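Need MIR domain-containing protein's 3D structure for a figure. Predict it.
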Amino acid sequence: MNPPRYDGTVHPDEWIKQIRTFCYFKQITEEQEIVKFCKSMIHSTININNNNDNNDNNNNNNNEIEEINTLDSLSNALKSHITFQILKDTCKRKLQVLKFAPEIHGGDTAKFISYFNMKCFDAEINDLEEQKKLLFHSFSDDFFRKEFNKQIHNVNSKEVLFKLFNNIVNEYSKLIKYGNFVSLKHITTGKYLTTDDKRYLTGSRGQIVFSTDALPEANAIWKINYPFGSQPKANNEIVSYGDTISLQNKLGKMLWAYPNYKSPTSGHVEVSCYSMNQYNNWMIEPNISNISTKKNSNEEKRYLKSEDKIVIVNESKEKVMILHSHNIKFTLDNSLYQEVFCHDNRIHLKDEWCIELVEH
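Structure prediction for MIR domain-containing protein:
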């Protein structure tokens, strides 16, 4: 363990703490001995003897160095030197240009908070309101800024501030965006929306869609795409409730429902995988009451998040069709498959699916 030299690039109190640790390790416990050792470790370009010189008396240097005989007086002397003011100003400027990136964009929240905390300490920024502003301006994403503004008023300590920050990062990591891959689990049966290369023997004769209890593999993973007939959305744009999307299986086919084709067992509307067309468009709703409730134009957007319970509505021009599954099965090539279909009946809790983020 080598003792660090003081060169003006570390907070004096932190440096003294490190020197004290070294001294205790070497069994140097007397404060004056520690102070003497500290002085020997100050870089020769930093002359703390002249910090308190008066313009009319330049002959007191020898007396002033002798006055620095406690760790507190040493700390004060180092803080009086111009290098400390430069350090504080430098750290404040670094905080002013600091930008946060969450883990999904290659960042590290723990390292960011540690760096932010240390720079506030080095710059001696202890005012909570100033810390709030600096942290707020580190966000470049509107989601972070909106959530931070909504919740910041009840923050009364730095620990609570960091807890809020971490909570917002956790919420951000759950956001569903265009280009993300998700799985859809039917809540009532606990099974995942899945497709297969096999084809229905009736109806559209397209690729079958069913529910399975296996953990999602490629045939049960769906990409959130822009809807048919609209301008493509940029990847990483957040999906909001009420948005119309299309769902593309990781194997390449689109989730599709055409009202003229009947499902193999229950006789409702068949759901299959097909190429891109107007019957690929699905609207995401948060719960059954919002299907029939007109949204207030002034209402704030609600973002779609992983593990949300949703209702999935096919936006067919002919009629409203709700994606559904149940425990009834159909047989194909001597295998049983849990039926998935759309219906236009009264919406109920069995229409809910849980959306789970699989891959950004």
